[in-house]
Automatic annotation (TrEMBL), chains A, B:
Pathway: Cofactor biosynthesis; adenosylcobalamin biosynthesis
Superkingdom as given in the UniProt entry: Archaea
One Pfam family hit: CbiC
Cobalamin biosynthesis precorrin-8X methylmutase CobH/CbiC domain location: 27-222
Coiled coil: none
Protein name per UniProt: Precorrin-8X methylmutase
This protein's UniProt keywords: Cobalamin biosynthesis, Isomerase
Gene3D superfamilies referenced in this protein's UniProt entry, alphabetically: Cobalamin biosynthesis CobH/CbiC, precorrin-8X methylmutase
Family: Belongs to the CobH/CbiC family.
Length: 244, 244
């Protein structure tokens, strides 16, 4: 077999060997997830998030860094999936996280905070990302949303203040990375999430980043897809044992 | 002091405390890099890449995972910086990596591979990302480029084949992530880079991802900026001791 421009397709065996075909781009991902499931328990909805954290980072240790706040861990995941089914907006801190949110399996609008709140930032000296979160919150954007912070600790701190002031995202995914306030910002998110009953998925320590935040959010989309297909009940009192 | 809509800016002290001001968005990043420099040596151009790997992931261990191929490590970094100064195209595998490439400090066109080569993928059954790399290579896009793979192992394998077939990127940054062929694909990139003298920055093992690839590429931009400012000589025989 040759391609349109005369190349022998046997040249491409190395890629085809991976088993992927166009139109089924999930196949490599599924094989990869099978290997992850050998490393991470596969019993609960929380496990699905832990599996995805490992899958997104390539690091089995990452399963131990995931935390659930504001509700028990399966309910946190259900709340996120319900928000996806309800087509609530997914609001990310920066462009890179937005780019990582899958376009499939949901009809949620996906928008980024960065680019908003320039006047507030100029007035106050706060970071552009923090100002962008406060500005979108002023517009009511975070209420009921899937609020995602993958990069900027100051965005996570701002989001925590918004929750403390009364805003109620449907779910928060916060894994900002770095050596300045990243760990502290997530701790603050966990505190306000627990205090106000806002479902939140975070990681402990400094590790995280855009890829982790996007991956965990995409797993909420995946759980929502399973629920839509009837494979998974999302009502709060559904037995955990039937989750997968 | 109050904002336009009457809020007291003292509410924002927590953010301003971080020392960042709009128009100087690098300040938090610099503080963060100062902390990284306490954890990673700061002597050579290779150290700058290792520092950035730690900064991008929040994990000090990442400094030990970086590898340089095709030339000695300082020359690999210099080659990447020269490509940036020469305004060569930065070509990423996926959109998320493209989104993570800084818009400042360079005039390189930045494009992504994904979205190209659909016919080839359909004909051969290879992944879309692998097909996209082969298609852009057929168009000559990778010759002299800054070739970046942050996500797809099959894209890295395809890029390695292109190098073996004669394509010479100015530098390769390859940190695809995952449990299917990620580690092997980087090993293959290292082999062809060493064999054909193509400067390449990779990581060993399975860990990596879009954030790492974008971060390391951005550090090449940063080195190029320092060279442009006269702070750093990029000619190959410059003494390493004068690099910072």
């Amino acid at each position: 077999m040759t391609t349109d421009d005369g190349r022998d397709t046997s040249d491409f065996e190395a890629y085809a060997d991976l088993g992927a075909t166009t139109g089924d781009a999930m196949e490599i991902a599924e094989t990869s997830m099978d290997r992850v499931r050998e490393l991470v328990p596969d019993e609960t909805l929380g496990d699905r998030i832990r599996q995805k954290a490992v899958h997104a980072t390539g690091d089995p240790e990452f399963q131990y860094l995931v935390r659930f706040s504001g509700a028990d861990e399966s309910e946190v995941v259900r709340a996120g999936a319900r928000a996806v089914l309800d087509e609530q907006p997914v609001v990310t801190d920066i462009t890179m996280v937005k780019s990582g949110i899958t376009g499939r399996g949901h009809s949620c609008p996906v928008r980024k905070a960065i680019g908003n709140g320039a006047a507030l930032a100029a007035e106050t000296g706060m970071t552009r990302t923090a100002a962008s979160v406060l500005e979108l919150d002023r517009q009511g954007v975070y209420e009921g949303s899937v609020a995602v912070v993958g990069n900027a600790p100051t965005a996570a701190l701002a989001l925590a203040d918004c929750i403390e002031s009364g805003t109620r995202p449907a779910v928060v995914v916060a894994t900002p990375v770095g050596f300045v306030k990243a760990a502290e910002s997530r701790e603050r998110v966990r505190e306000v999430a627990d205090e106000h009953g806002v479902p939140a998925i975070t990681t402990v320590g400094r590790r995280g980043g855009s890829g982790v935040a996007a991956g965990l959010t995409n797993e909420l989309v995946h759980v929502a897809s399973d629920a839509r297909d009837g494979d998974l009940p999302l009502d709060t009192d559904a037995p955990v044992a039937s989750e997968r």
